[in-house]
Amino acid sequence: MVKFITLVGASLIFVGQGATQEAYEQYCATCHASAGRLARKLEGATAEEKGAKLGRFLETHQKLDPEVRAKLVDYLVGLSRP
Ligand code: HEC
Q: What is the position in ligand 1's atom list of the atom closest to the CA of 42?
């Protein structure tokens, strides 16, 4: 049973990441081919700072649904971790 729950949890996380990557391809990849490269350029000392800064930047950079924007911020900040 525990194993089953773990498996379901893991696949939900996987599906979530896939959807975000798709959003990146759809909204960003036309101009920024590499998500990893963008992620490495994020400014800020901590993940929180990077996320806050990117979130503010994206408010004006592209017209995005706030939910999509939040997902993309999480995705890129996640990629920026060493
Ligand atoms: C129509 C082309 C285009 C699209 C689509 C686009 N960008 Fe950009 N982006 C640019 C250009 C040009 C710059 C550099 C000039 C500027 O700062 O606006 C830039 C700059 C940036 C920067 C600042 C760092 C840097 O490399 O200068 C970030 C972060 C960024 N974009 C993220 C994104 C994300 C995330 C998406 C998807 C939601 C996205 N962009 C979609 C064209 C685009």
A: 29
